[in-house]
Give the backbone structure.
Amino acid sequence: MRLLATPLAGAFVVELDLLGDERGWFARTYDEALFAGHGLQPVGVQANSSFNAARDTLRGLHFQADPHGEAKLVRCVRGAIWDVGVDLRSDSASYLRWHAVELTADNRRGYYLAAGFAHGFQTLTADCEVQYLMSHVYVPEAARGVRWDDPAFAIDWPEPHGERTLSDKDRGYPDFEP
């Protein structure tokens, strides 16, 4: 497994090393010691999955307020997504910048985001399943979000092939206020 730095401090693409033979392959998808060696917060407290039936489903941008901030490791295990992290840490050199990576069942990549990032994704295929490892349990009172198309971030989302599917909650988030 390799952790590849992105332009955002605290965001890494995770590349797997596949060990294959006539049966198929095996790969380590998370290694707490490797992550700690890069100064990253462990993400082994809670695991979540989301299933997205329609192409162009957009979820996000979500985060948890302090002191319940959560680092996460995201993988797409079925289908393909455009996964986005936005750095909301005011003391960060990459504050308010975004980075995206295509996660697919075929490329098997992961995307690590430190606590303090907002996270969202758009499905690129129908029938996507996304898995998350989290550093903190979900705390409903700490759940927050910012609008996916907020001009403060100017995220370059993929053009949809029709209408984007968003929840009313995600559609109704306010613009970000520093």
Notes: The helical segments are 32-37, 168-171. The mean pLDDT is 96. The first helix runs from residue 32 to 37. The chain has one domain: 2-19+26-171.
